[in-house]
Amino acid sequence: MATFNFELVSPERLLFAGPVEQVVVPGAEGDFAVLKDHAPLMSSLRPGVIVVTDDKNQTQRLFVRGGFADVSPSGLTILAEQAVPVQEITDEFIAVEVKAAEDEFAAASTEDERRVSQERLAQVLALRDQFLSRTHVQ
Amino acid sequence: MASLKDLRNRIASVKATQKITKAMQMVAAAKLRRAQSAAEAARPYAERMGVVLANVASGVTASSAPRLLAGTGKDDVHLLVVFTAERGLCGAFNSSITRLARDRANTLLAQGKTVKILCVGKKGYDLLRRQFAKHIIEVVELRSVRTLAFEHGDMVARKITALFDAGEFDVATIFFARFRSVIQQIPTAQQIIPAEIPAAAAGGASVSYEYEPEESDILEALLPRNIAVQVFRALLENAASEQGARMSAMDSATRNAGEMIRKQTMQYNRTRQAMITKELIEIISGAEAL
Predict the structure, then answer these.
(1) Which among B57, B53, B85, B113 is positioned nearest to B240, based on CA atoms?
(2) Measured between beta carbons, which residues in chain B are less than 8 angstroms from residue A70?
(3) B116/B137 Cα distance (integer angstroms)
(4) How many domains is chain B built from?
(5) Rounded to whole angstroms, how far apart are CA atoms B207 and A115?
(6) Which of A39, A68, A79 has its CB closest to that of B210?
(7) CA B208 to CA B220: how far, in whole Å?
(8) Is the pLDDT of residue B287 over 90?
(9) Is residue B263 part of a domain?
(10) CATH number for the domain that contains residue B46
(11) Class for domain A4-86, per CATH?
(12) Which of B61, B200, B209, B229 is surrounded by the fewest CB atoms within 10 Å?
């Protein structure tokens, strides 16, 4: 299958760069998969899991906490706020994330802030459920 | 004429100083390696960010652009954000950054503009407060920070955007030293508000993008992010530059101390020999007189 260029960068470092077959991105308005020659698209991300399928059909899963995805003719670039391989994610890690989102929601003073933080909290909670169910399955 | 004891003391003290500068040089060299790789690791993100921003911004008309991109339409109040080290003993590092900022401030003041200064790092504040005490609005100290993380850049950026939202200034410029090599750090001024779009990148993007969610929402989230990234990059470049400057400053200090020790040891030996000769002459001439 055809491959395209994928780059995952966090402020601290370049996490992934190379040819891939498919990347599933947790967009703000729903997950989407990027294949070769995807139309130019710019999307913000919600906290979620990126699934990267490389040219040898190996998949790699990484957790990202918000950021941007930029699909251009030259490939896909994800600017992540923070990215961690899924294997390294522990229950404590998620608990910290949930706590941060709850605090933010509690501290929100304006209508706008409340809306944004509530959205974020919902996203984080959904993520927690996803991870909890994963551990039950295993 | 200094006595032998004085000379011995002086040599001992220079030797002690040399040990300190040597140790500082080695510490700086070790820290430099870490700071340099951190600065280099952060470069891709800042570069991609610039490209992405240019892509988005090229599709936005001037009238609908958010204020962080278009500016306030005025050019009256300038905010200078001066990044320096928390410690001295690093050669001309701090003074060359503050000199650049001071020159800019003086030019702006001469044009009748208002200047506000935000100091990040204690040394910049020390150097600027004599002349610009009433212009300095805040000092951020990062003394307790051991390793720079993105949140530190984010914290400074939040301060800047909060000031901008409050209408405190029209144009913001950051001053830091770009790390070129151990012996070369380039003091740099970079305008961050309104955002400067790299001209080369802006020309290449004529594709029509789809946006999810709305274009304006993305741009609104992207712009403050870009400021945080630029600030973080400035912090990292500065950290590497500081260690580089300190390393070369301490290297030459160590060499100067070595030179001083050599000269003083020579003088010490000459004085000692002169005294022996003098004593011998006294004994011989005393014996001859008998």
Answers:
(1) B85
(2) 48, 51-52, 55
(3) 6
(4) 1
(5) 33
(6) A39
(7) 19
(8) yes
(9) no
(10) 3.40.1380.10
(11) mainly beta
(12) B61
Tokens of B2: 């200094």
Q: Are A102 and A118 in contact (CB under 8 A)?
A: no
Q: Which of B254, B242, B259 is nearest to B142 (CA)?
A: B242
Closest among B157, B170, B168 to B230, alpha carbons compared: B157
Residue A133 clears pLDDT 80, i.e. is over it: no
CA distance B31 to B37: 10
Is the confidence at residue B196, as pLDDT, over 90? Answer: no
pLDDT at position A85, please? 82
- Contact present, A47 and A31 (Cβ < 8 Å): no
Percent residues over pLDDT 90 in chain B = 50
Mutation site for B-interface testing, chosen from A34, A44, A46 by largest number of B Cβ within 10 Å: A44
Collect all residues from B whose CB is shorter than 8 A from any CB in A: 38, 41-42, 44-45, 48-49, 51-52, 55-56, 149-150, 153, 205, 207-213, 215, 217-218, 221-222, 225, 228-229, 232
ipTM value for the complex = 0.71
Q: Is residue B114 part of a domain?
A: yes
User: Which token pair is B238?
Assistant: 């500065």
Q: Does B136 fall in a domain?
A: yes
As given in the structure block, the two tokens for residue B22 are 């040597």
Contact partners, residue B44, CB within 8 Å, separation at least 6: A7, A9, A13, A14
What's the pLDDT tens digit per position in B29-51? 999 999 998 888 888 888 888 87
Q: Which of B222, B245, B236 is nearest to B43 (CA)?
A: B236
Please give the pLDDT value at position B201. Answer: 47
- Residue pair B70/B164 in contact by the 8 Å Cβ criterion: no
pLDDT of residue B117 exceeding 80: yes
pLDDT higher for B68 or B272? B272
In order, the DSSP letters of B87-107 are S--STTHHHHHHHHHHHHHHH
Q: Report residue B50 as tokens.
A: 């610039």
Q: Please say whether the beta carbons of B168 and B161 come within 8 A.
A: no
For residue B180, give the 3-state DSSP assignment: strand
Q: Which residue has the tokens 């993008």?
A: B209
Sequence ranges of the domains in chain A: 4-86, 90-137
Strands B210-212 and A41-45: parallel
Chain A residues with CB under 8 Å of B56 CB are: 42
